[in-house]
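Long-time lurker, finally posting.

We've been working with DedA family protein (Salicibibacter cibi) and I want a structural starting point before designing mutants. I don't trust myself to interpret raw outputs, so I'm hoping someone here can both generate the C-alpha cells and explain anything notable. Sequence follows.
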Amino acid sequence: MGMKYWSGVWGWAEATLFFIVPDVLITYGALSNRIRMVVRLCLWALGGALIGGCLMYITGVWFADHTRQLLVMIPAIDDALIEEVREELQTAGWQAIILGPTQGIPYKIYASYAAEADISLLFFLLISVPARVVRFLLAGLLAWGLSQWLLRPIGLRLKIGIWLLFWLTFYSFYFVQMGG
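Top reply, 14 upvotes:
Generated this for you. Predicted structure of DedA family protein:
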C-alpha cells in the first residue's frame, strides 16, 4: 500500500481513536523533496479525517455516553477537556471547530459533540475541510521547504533523524502539557 493510502488511513484513525496526527507521515513524505507528494498526502489525510469525523459525529449522536467513555481512554483527553470543547461549541459554534485544533485539542472531540451544538453533519464536514487541511498543508509545506532549502546538503538519513527527533520532542512536550 502506497504512502497516500496510509495517509488516508492515518487521517481516519486520528479523527477517531488514534492520538498521533497524520502530520507525522505528511512531514516524512516531505523529505522526498516532491511537493506534489506532500499535497497528495495532505488531501488523502483530509479524506480520511472527514470519514473519521463523520463516524465520530454519528457516534456522538447515537451513543453519547459511550462516546465520552471511549474518548477519555485516549491519551491527553479527559473529562475536563471534553467539557471545555462542549462549552466552546455552545458559545463559539462552528468557529470552535476551526480554532480548537490550533490549540492542540483533538478534532475527534469536536466531531463527537458538534451535533449537540446544533451543527448539522453536512456543515460540520464542510467546516472540517479548512480545519483539517490548512494544518496538514502548513506542516507538509514547512517540512518540504526546510528539506528543500535548509537541509538540502545533508543526506536523507540525517534528515530522517532530524524528523524523528522533532516528532519525539513534540509529542514529549505535548503529552506533558496535555496531561496524557
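Before you design anything, note these points.
The chain has a mean pLDDT of 92.
Residues 3-175 form one domain.
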